[in-house]
Specification:
The protein has 216 residues and is α/β, with parallel strands linked by helices. It is built from 5 helices and 14 strands. It has helices at 49-63, 106-118, 185-188, 192-200, 202-205, and strands spanning 9-10, 13-14, 24-28, 34-39, 66-72, 74-77, 80-88, 92-94, 97-99, 127-137, 157-165, 170-175, 178-184, 209-213. The strands form 5 sheets. The chain has a 4-stranded mixed beta sheet with strand order 9-5-11-10. Strands 6, 7, 8 and 13 form a 4-stranded antiparallel beta sheet that branches. Strand 6 and strand 7 form a beta hairpin.
Length: 216
């Protein structure tokens, strides 16, 4: 003990061993290696906020907790990591993904959603990695929180973010009424006003990783 600092030892190794500081490496490939096309538009429910809340209440009564899964996919542009986002109706932004079906696993559901929104082949392969963040909605009207408040025993919605590793090249086929954008991480950081808390918080979630920018 020196100057109030305690050094912890376990099995003869210091807690400051280099292994404890290793970060997972994510390979990021150039945007130029991907092809982008379009397909038939998706249909969206045209409903008021009150209608949506009522629909969520009905679904909760029937199926319980609503679980959504979303993908964080990275590409390289100008030597900087970019996140792929979907833009809806030229306004709101979303990470690709969606709601799970009753009894569906996180990985299976996310692959299904990615294929339906970003591919023409529902059997397309996606490499779903680790879950990097979870957000909770305590009730139907509230905002999402990056933790589950201890006083909330029956949350209404859970949103899980998964890192999805992209290959060096692939085809993205996007519905005509959606835009697929590559947004730099620096633009997302603390930009809740434009992208909302989940997307703007992705930068902190990715701080645990090292990026390996691979040249074309």
């Amino acid at each position: 003990m020196e100057n109030g600092t305690v050094t912890l030892l376990e099995n003869g190794h210091s807690s400051s061993d280099s292994n404890s500081n290793q970060r997972n490496v994510v390979d990021i490939y150039p945007l130029s290696g991907y092809y982008f096309g379009s397909k038939e538009a998706l249909s969206f429910k045209d409903e008021t906020i009150a209608d949506r809340v009522q629909r969520m209440k009905s679904n909760y009564d029937a199926y319980g907790l609503r679980t959504c899964v979303e993908a964080v996919m990275l590409v390289e542009l100008f030597k900087h990591p970019h996140v792929l986002l979907l833009q809806v109706r030229n306004s709101s932004f979303r990470l690709p993904g969606g709601r799970l079906r009753p009894g569906e696993s996180d990985a299976v559901g996310l692959k299904r959603k990615l294929s339906s929104k970003l591919s023409v082949n529902e059997e397309d392969t996606w490499e779903v990695g680790e879950c990097i963040g979870i957000w909770w909605k305590p009730n139907f009207e509230s905002l999402l929180y990056p933790y589950l408040p201890p006083n909330v025993k029956r949350p209404k919605e859970c949103t899980k973010l998964f890192l999805v590793n992209l290959p060096a090249s692939r085809k993205f086929i996007v519905p005509k009424n959606l835009k697929l954008l590559a947004v730099p991480l620096c633009q997302l950081h603390e930009n809740d006003k434009t992208y909302g808390p989940i997307i703007s918080g992705v930068t902190q979630l990715l701080s645990k990783f090292s990026f390996n920018m691979i040249d074309a």
